[in-house]
Amino acid sequence: MAKTEYSAKNIEILEGLDAVRKRPGMYIGTTGVKGLHHILWEIVDNCVDEVANGFGDTIRIELLDNNVARVSDNGRGIPVDKHPKLKISGVEVVFTQLHAGAKFNNNEYTFSGGLHGVGASVTNALSEWLNVEVKKDGIIYRAEFHSYPLASGKIKSGQTKTPLTAVGKTKDRGTTVTFKPDERVFGKERFNFDTIAERVRETAYLNRGITIIVKDLRMPLDGGTEREETFRFAGGIADYVQYLNEGKQVLYDKPLYIEAMEDKFQVAVAIQHTTAYAESIYSYVNNIPTPEGGTHEVGFKSALTKVFNDYARDNKLLKDKQENLLGDDYREGIVAVITVKMQDVQFEGQTKTKLGNPEARTKVESIVTSKLSELINSRGFKSTAEKIIQKAMGAAKTREAAKRAKDLSRQQNKLNGLNLVGKLAACSGKNYAINELFIVEGRSAGGSAKNARDRSFQAILPLRGKPLNVEKAPLDSILKNEEISTIIAALGTGIEPKFEIADLKFDKVIILADADDDGAHIRALLMTFFFRYMRQLVLDGHLYIGMPPLYKLQKNNEIRYCYDDAALEKAQKEMGKNTKLQRFKGLGEMNPEQLWDTAMDPAQRTLTRVTIEDAAAADKRISILMGDDSTIRKDYIYEHADFNKLDTFKVDDGKEE
């Protein structure tokens, strides 16, 4: 029970960086692997701001043994003179003071991604130790920081161990930060080379001409990969679009690319259409991804529609009596990257995922209208423009067919949900904030799930066959597919471009498929559908993967369920000999009690939330795995699959092991 006394002495004052250590989730979201990489990005992003503003051209990221990271640039170097108010060096200010930096005004950086001045200091606060080396004005300076335990058991975070000191001479310039994330915060999480390389590749595309080198110097036993990759793209986002379209069939060889700067507002756009049907637009503001779009995307879409409708009219591709095509038509199959660099950025929400500046729409629309019109009307682009318009005309016909299908679907939905009768086992509760929908494969699994569930808040939707691969299908075919249309009706949100998250009938949408190849394929098909047509559902954290167990291990009255081979091996060692091992072939063979205990009981189950760390990277993987190009898919599988894994257990025979 809480104490009844509440006075001023109960108010805790956290000094310096202690607030970060006390509540790390407020600053980095999580202390898992995502948070570990977040403190690396804080340092890397500072380097990117430096070189992107023209003060350098190279960034190095090195992974060292014992989970240590080293990040360096050849920029101007962090200021080493003393701060007039704090009377400590600029380096110590940057790494020990929250909300301190040179990005609150536009004097030092014309554009910057870091806006809150907490980046470097948060990394310091959550590190066991951090060292900074600055090469500036012919001198090498060094400062050291560390976090140490107090007698009370608390941790004093990011304290200056060695103040900034001149340690040598140099002809170079720049800043190097070396740090070890604190295991008292992050446990055994380790830096992942592929995660870093993927993020760095995107950054290099967005900042044409800069060089970023990632090198893994760790020993293999410490997670090392012995890999080194250099990212530098002279074509910038035009190269990025081509990279995203690898494995897709494109309408024209080279992306349309435009860029312009007006009144310290910079816009660059790259566009390339494919023969696919989904729209893929990726936008950034000052190198920060904006997966929820915003005013800059609205301006781009308006300009794109106007430019191509005007071209179609001027060149008699649209007859006088024909209506203008819609923006959706021109964006069918489009892959576009929009990057804006501007001052005084206003993001909607604390997650910085949607741009809110109203002037961004006006500026982007004006610049894109002018530059894109000029480009497609120039010599050599007639064929490209006509291909885009012809595809849009085909999309318009499909749209009309889809509209008729939607109208029919709405009529059916109004008839008390008749299209869900016999398909959806609804829950009795009406509190959407706690309700869950389990999407399961097959009648057998559906029957087990229906008997296992708590019907007060858990609904079951069995699939009667594999859902359609929406990556290869036009919208009218998607809406005609029984499994997909049933999911749409059950969720109540509609699909893009008129998806409404406010109409979602369930807080959790859980894909519960068998732990085999067919189950993995069904999960992939469903996630492709949600990514393409209900992306906000994923972005808002409503999509989950249920984790049914692979094995049941029993010895006398002791039963353990194991979800992977590692857990099985551990359980076998702990339980000893004379155990019975059962390998579950599917959900349908589990009785309701087993299914409830292992996959449906909120108190015991394991769910994996589906997130989108990098929408563009997710788009590329989906295109590779679900698209038409089998060669690139095989290459991806051979690169990432482990073909040397052997099963070392005896198969489900019910006999003692």
Architecture overview:
With 657 residues, the protein is α+β, with helices and mostly antiparallel strands. The protein folds into three domains: 18-231, Histidine kinase-like ATPase, C-terminal domain (Heat Shock Protein 90); 237-398, Ribosomal Protein S5, domain 2 (2-Layer Sandwich), CATH 3.30.230.10; 420-548 and 607-626, Rossmann fold (3-Layer(aba) Sandwich), CATH 3.40.50.670. The chain has 21 helices and 21 strands. The strands form four sheets. The chain has an eight-stranded mixed sheet. The chain has a five-stranded mixed sheet with strand order 9-10-13-11-12, with helices on both faces. Strand 18 and strand 19 form a beta hairpin. Helix 3 (33-52) runs antiparallel to helix 5. The longest helix is centred in the middle third of the chain and has 33 residues, at 382-414. Residues 6-14, 411-418 and 649-657 have low confidence and may be disordered.
Task: Sum up the structure in keywords.
Rossmann fold; 657 residues; alpha+beta; single chain; five-stranded mixed β-sheet; 21 helices; disordered C terminus; Ribosomal Protein S5, domain 2; eight-stranded mixed β-sheet; 3 domains; 21 strands; 36% helix; Heat Shock Protein 90
